[in-house]
Design brief:
heterodimer; A: 2 domains; B: mainly alpha; 10 helices; MetI-like (chain B); transport (chain B); transmembrane helix (chain B); Sulfonate transport system permease protein (chain B); membrane (chain B)
């Protein structure tokens, strides 16, 4: 849950003060480079438990090796595939349940408390149970990712549909719209921005849950499994490589999705101005 | 959400139906006991664990780590967020690294931290501290940066010192978002701790569940699920009550 909608760089740099933006940006590089050099120096002097630090040369070797062998790509593809499946399944289930809870008071009252009880348990806390039930294969992993994607979507769909302007719905009723058309063209459209926020959260949660499950199950392929294998083998270069790619992919997913949403919701800006 | 809905009977229907289905399924032997332990055996595991003091010891071990790590992470996070908010220079140097590291979920750092700190107590406390650091740092930063320029101008006109500005203006103005950040940090810290304990620990609620899994004690695993859910809920809910009390009368 460490990355979120308001991705960072936009916050900095925008208030460059007296310094030129370029100089400002260079300052941001000082600390990472200093840390890398310190890291490299510690590795050369064999500080720590021997395998805690690796030299930059070792890291780049590991990187080149993982790319050349295709392992890195295979692991990334495996993880992204899980996230995609989890998002589709969790998305459909989440939007369906959120809609049912928002539109029917009975469903809300019967399923709501159950939903909120289950929500209290951290997603990864289900792993020992699912491991017992379904073993260590692909299915329990997909189940966890689906669950992670589903829950934020239930909440945002519910909130979105509940907060539709009543006036809009009444206009629809006056026009004696078919309930289905009313739902599809009025309610769902009004709830779309909120649901898209939910999708954005679902994307982040699914990625985190996917990495988490792969690490905790420690089996199969995937970028999390790669990190966990690296840890068991005491191979810091592999672990670091995995961590860097987890961050890069998280950033890429969030950025791509934000671009997509901004494009999809352009109609809203003009409507608000009117 | 504003609609009042108080109908405890109907609210219980779903939970009771699930419990009944669970009980019936185990009664009829739809699943073997190792696959689905009956509700009463989960209850027995709870009573047994509570009676022997074992469950209490696990919970205390986890909460102790949570307290130490959270205190450290929240304090450092608040200081960091404050420094970033007050000094553009500090922000210029640190924000790049800050936001880059933020992209990586805490769980992905766990194996790396194991390599650096080993599997002892330090590692778990660092995980908790990392998980709570970010929400608090961000909340303090955005809370203080979000203060309207008008107020800052008034403070400048009165030539308030930095200490006075902090106490009279920034603290009260940033309190609501900071409290939300502190609450978010606490719940993330709990999630991260459970994950860390599932991976490596010799005591703690996550370790209890992992042992239960290895010994095929489904009752213990299920009991653990209920316990981590309850603790998470109590932490979050308790903090919400505190939040409401502290911000009472504030329009923000």
């Amino acid at each position: 849950m460490s990355f979120s909608a308001q991705a960072g760089p936009a916050l900095s740099g925008s208030h460059a003060g007296f310094a030129t933006p370029r100089l400002h940006r260079l300052k941001g590089l000082v600390l990472p480079i200093a840390l890398l050099l310190l890291w490299d120096m510690l590795a050369r002097r064999h500080v720590g438990q021997g395998f805690a630090f690796v030299t930059l040369a070792q890291l780049s070797d590991a990187f080149a090796g993982a790319i050349a062998s295709g392992d890195l790509l295979a692991n990334i593809v495996a993880s992204l595939r899980r996230v995609a499946i989890g998002l589709v399944c969790g998305g459909v289930l989440g939007i369906a349940l959120g809609t049912a809870m928002a539109l029917s008071r009975t469903v809300d009252r019967v399923v709501g408390p159950l939903f909120h009880s289950i929500r209290q348990v951290p997603t990864l806390g289900w792993i020992p149970l699912l491991g017992l039930w379904f073993g260590y294969g692909e299915f329990p992993k997909l189940l966890i990712v689906t669950k992670a994607a589903m829950f934020p979507l239930v909440l945002s769909t519910y909130e979105g549909l509940r907060n539709v302007r009543q006036a809009d719905v009444e206009v629809g009723r006056v026009l004696t719209l078919d309930p289905w058309v009313l739902f599809w063209r009025v309610r769902l459209r009004a709830a779309a921005p909120m649901i898209l926020t939910g999708v954005q959260q679902a994307l982040a949660f699914a990625w985190i849950a996917c990495i988490g499950t792969e690490i905790l199950f420690g089996s199969g392929i995937g970028i999390g499994a790669m990190i966990e294998t690296g840890q068991v083998e005491g191979n810091m270069a592999t672990v670091l490589l995995g961590v860097i790619f987890v961050g890069l992919i998280a950033f890429a997913l969030t950025t791509a999705f934000n671009r997509f949403t901004a494009r999809q919701l352009r109609w809203r800006d003009t409507e608000d101005r009117a | 959400m504003t609609r009042a809905r108080f109908d405890p009977l109907l609210s219980l229907v779903g939970l009771l139906a699930l419990l009944l289905a669970w009980w019936t399924a185990t009664r009829l032997g739809v699943f073997p006991r190792q696959v689905l332990a009956p509700p009463e055996s989960v209850w027995r595991a709870f009573v047994q664990g509570a009676g022997s003091g074992e469950l209490g010891a696990h919970i205390l071990a986890s909460l102790g780590r949570l307290g130490t790590g959270y205190a450290a992470g929240a304090l450092v996070g608040a200081a960091f967020g404050l420094a970033m908010a007050l000094s553009r220079e500090f922000e210029a140097y640190t924000s790049g690294l800050f936001h880059a590291v933020r992209q990586v979920p805490t769980i992905a750092f766990i194996p790396m931290l194991v390599l650096v700190f080993g599997v002892e107590e330090t590692f778990k406390i660092v995980v908790v501290a990392k998980a709570s650091f970010y929400p608090v740092a961000l909340a303090v930063f955005t809370g203080i940066r979000g203060i309207s320029a008008k107020y800052l101008d008034v403070a400048a006109v009165y030539t308030l010192s930095l200490a006075q500005r902090l106490r009279l203006l920034m603290l009260p103005a940033a309190l609501p978002p900071v409290l939300t950040g502190l609450r978010l940090g606490l719940s993330r810290a709990w999630v991260a701790l459970v994950a860390a304990e599932l991976l490596v620990a010799d005591e703690g609620i996550g370790q209890m569940m992992e042992m239960g899994r290895q010994m095929f004690r489904l009752d213990i695993v299920l009991m653990g699920v209920v316990v981590i859910g309850t603790i998470g809920f109590l932490l979050d809910h308790g903090f919400k009550l505190l939040e409401r009390r502290l911000t009472k009368g504030m329009s923000a």
